[in-house]
Amino acid sequence: MDIFSGFLAGIDDSFHRERTEEVLTWITNKYPNLEREIKWKQPMFTDHGTFIIGFSVSKKHLAVAPESVTITHVESDIVKAGYDYTKELIRIPWKEPVDYSLLEKMIEFNLMDKATCSTFWRK
């Protein structure tokens, strides 16, 4: 059984569930070496024990949490995509398309920037 199946089953809205599964599957296929985990009741991807990207769902959006350093790094791309964001997360409205190139930039940055990181979160 896939590690994310329980999380996905808990999403009541079928469109939200399908969209979330689509994003998680895209990352799994694009980055097969990333570890899939559920921590703090949220799906996330890690590499050599360090956090790369995580997700949560709400009524209005899929939230992406890549750490604040990463948000700062891709801030202009977030603005270009038209997503609302804070210091810690990006909100992808359910009715808007997912900007996969933005997800890729965040993941690639974290993989490079945290290549020698020995902690879960950046210090």
From TrEMBL:
Gene3D superfamilies: 3.90.1150.200
InterPro entries, alphabetized: YdhG-like
One Pfam family cited in the UniProt record for this chain: DUF1801
Classification via SUPFAM superfamilies: YdhG-like
Boundaries of every YdhG-like domain copy: 16-110
Identification of the protein by name: Iron chaperone
